[in-house]
Amino acid sequence: MRKTDYMASLESKLANLPKEERLEFIADYEEHFTIGLTNGRTEDEIAESLGKPEKVAKEIVAQYNLEVAHNHPSMKTILRASFAAISLSMFNLIFVLGPFVAIMVIPITLSIVSIALILSPLLLLIQEGFSSAFWIQGFLLIGYVGLGMILAVGSWKLLQLCYGLIIRYLNFNLNIVRGGQE
User: Fold this and answer.
1) Cα–Cα distance between 71 and 167 in angstroms, integer?
2) How far apart are CA 13 and CA 6, in angstroms?
3) Which is nearest to 13 in space by CA: 67, 66, 56?
4) Whole-Å CA distances, 5 to 2, 21, 114, 170
5) 35-68: per-residue pLDDT in tens?
6) Where are the alpha helices (DSSP H) in 14-137?
7) 129-147, pLDDT tens digit by residue?
8) pTM across the whole model
């Protein structure tokens, strides 16, 4: 594959990255061709040694999304990094999606339970109104709200821990897909 074809294909596959990042990656691969040509290699040899531009682009996008998720952890960035890793191969569908779901189920479930506990007085008020049942269960409801607040803090801390675990696992997975490089 000629350099111009390779670079055009790579650039088109990286179109969704921010312009600065895309230009930086393109410059890196231009440099690979420049160094290879000065060492007497042909453009076809250099392109073959770099790998198919589609695969290279998928790895670059996965690495970029992983860095974004690491620097700005949120559900959106973690999901984007996970799906970029999954796109690398069908093998990753099982080995990325499975652990992602398994890790995220617990903090999300705890968050839902904590919200339900915090809102329990409101739910009972809607159901019973200001009847005697509402006032009799008042101390129990205060306990539920307190337990819900404790669970909310715990689930937030657990969610942060899970983000870190997922990012480390995605890094590990990306290194395996690359063939243990780095």
Assistant:
1) 10
2) 11
3) 56
4) 5, 20, 55, 31
5) 988 999 888 888 888 888 988 888 888 889 888 9
6) 19-38, 43-50, 53-71, 75-86, 90-128, 132-136
7) 777 776 777 788 888 899 9
8) 0.65
